[in-house]
């Protein structure tokens, strides 16, 4: 039986990836606006904080990924949001004609 446990432990180790999280990244950043740009081989997500009353914002983080990783992110978010809504109620989405930042012209410096 010890051999079975050892082989199971080895399989788990082979399927595991150790991920380190630096302290400055662990703090996270707040974002209330996302810009998405997609090319043939990558997806760029810019996470920004927009101050609505003064119409000024700053991109806080940029994440670049493959379309396959973006699809995986979509699946994870759909699953997590469905679970959240089942516990907390529906999240009202913004319609195309009633967006929080409707009419804001984005410019990059």
Features of the shown structure:
single chain; alpha+beta; 3 strands; 109 residues; elongated; 3-stranded antiparallel sheet
In short:
The protein is α+β, with helices and mostly antiparallel strands and 109 residues long. It is 36% helix and 23% strand. It has a domain at 28-88.
Question: Could you characterize what this model shows?
Answer:
The chain has helices spanning 2-14, 23-26, 67-88; strands spanning 33-38, 43-51, 56-65. By secondary structure, it is of the alpha+beta class. It has a domain at 28-88. A three-stranded antiparallel sheet has the order 1-2-3. The chain is elongated and about 65 Å long. The mean pLDDT is 84.
Strand segment tally? 3
Question: Order of strands across the biggest sheet?
Answer: 1-2-3
Strand content: 15-25%
Give the termini separation. Answer: 64 Å
Q: Count of helices?
A: 3
Please give the share of residues in helix: 25-40%
The averaged pLDDT comes out at 84
Largest sheet: 3 strands, antiparallel
- Which consecutive residue ranges, at least 5 long each, have pLDDT under 50? none
Structural class: alpha+beta
Could you say which overall geometry the principal axes of the C-alpha atoms support?
Answer: elongated
What gyration radius follows from the Cα positions, in whole Å? 20 Å
Element string (H = helix, E = strand): HHEEEH
């Amino acid at each position: 039986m010890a051999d079975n446990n050892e082989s199971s432990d080895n399989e788990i180790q082979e399927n595991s990836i150790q991920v380190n999280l630096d302290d400055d990244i662990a703090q996270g950043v707040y974002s209330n606006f996302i810009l998405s740009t997609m090319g043939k081989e990558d997806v760029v997500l810019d996470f920004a904080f927009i101050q609505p009353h003064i119409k000024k914002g700053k991109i806080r983080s940029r994440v670049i990924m493959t379309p396959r990783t973006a699809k995986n992110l979509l699946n994870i978010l759909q699953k997590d949001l469905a679970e959240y809504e089942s516990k907390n109620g529906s999240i009202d989405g913004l319609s195309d004609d009633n967006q929080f930042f409707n009419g804001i012209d984005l410019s990059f410096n």
